Amino acid sequence: MARSAVPAAAPDVAALRDRARIIRRHIVEMLHEAASGHPGGSLSAVEVVTALYFGGILRHDPENPEWPERDRFVLSKGHGVPVQYAALAMAGYFPVDELRTLRKIDSRLQGHPVLGTAPGIEASTGSLGQGLSIGLGMALAARLDDMDSRVFVLLGDGECQEGQVWEAAMAAGHHRPANLIAIVDYNKFQLDGAIEDIIGLEPLAAKWESMGWKTREIDGHDMQQVVDALEWSTQAGEPVCIIAHTVKGKGVSFMEGDNAYHGVAPSNEELPRALSELERGDPEEENARALGSADVLDRAEASIDASAESNGKGGGR
């Protein structure tokens, strides 16, 4: 079935922001219940995942998860799967209460995505570096079958140190599937520390461009930028890489930019504080809406602009 020629209604960005806040609450609650997991990289990817599932970007059907003509979402950075589980539950793939079974024996919601367990999971990932190859195969298969399904692959930045990522990027640049979109969650940290201290990635956009990809760099927490970039990616006509500059642990003040929370769940003492922050939302953002001040809102939502500008990056290229 071809996609509708009727343009979809513009996403309600304010509603997407509210949904992102709820997804963050689910993430910290399920990780606390499991007493293990990866909050930092789950929280940094919330806006991207929210826009995909609820912003009219990803074509999917919770009542028919195996629908052949669906779009595919491959979470290559599999340790961040709490964000996907939360989105799937909120979309209706399974009950929200099931989120509390994360990482428990016999649960469908394991610590990394496992194909054939929870509905909506498209690939087993978590052995880093493999997701883009899987997504490329899906995209080429859809093209061979004359289907207009798109494939979105979310990569970690530390994961981009894996050689298999670049083999897949080079192959995609050669075969040029127009239905393949890679998104890099560029939160500047990996398990062992800062990306720049281990193997720096810059110039990251130029690397993708040299292999035949169109690229755009965005603030990965500015919902409007995320939506705009994803919509642009579906019309580009060739492989696209969106580099989303993000903050590890975004939304929970004591986790933001603290790599200690790469793989440490919130404690009994930390959970109420995190939920309190996520209940009230971003104070500057709320003030901006009340005052109608675009300047204040811009400052609230551009938490990483200074870092991006210091590296000479614009909003898109």
CATH class: Alpha Beta
Which structural category do the helix and sheet elements fall into?
alpha/beta
Annotated CATH architecture: 3-Layer(aba) Sandwich
Strand percentage lies at 5-15%
Task: Give the strand order of the largest sheet, numbering strands 1, 2, ... along the chain.
Answer: 1-2-3-7-6
Count every beta strand, where a strand is a DSSP E run of 2 or more residues.
Answer: 7
Tell me the helix content: 40-55%
* CATH topology descriptor: Rossmann fold
Keywords:
Rossmann fold, two-stranded antiparallel sheet, about 325 residues, alpha/beta
Walk me through this protein's architecture.
- It contains 13 helices and seven strands.
- It is an alpha/beta fold and 317 residues long.
- It has one domain: Thiamin diphosphate (ThDP)-binding fold, Pyr/PP domains (Rossmann fold, 3-Layer(aba) Sandwich), CATH 3.40.50.970.
- The strands form two sheets. Strands 1-2-3-7-6 form a five-stranded parallel beta sheet, with helices on both faces. The chain has a two-stranded antiparallel ribbon with strand order 4-5.
In summary, what is this structure?
By secondary structure, this protein is of the alpha/beta class. It is 41% helix and 10% strand. It has one domain: Thiamin diphosphate (ThDP)-binding fold, Pyr/PP domains (Rossmann fold), CATH 3.40.50.
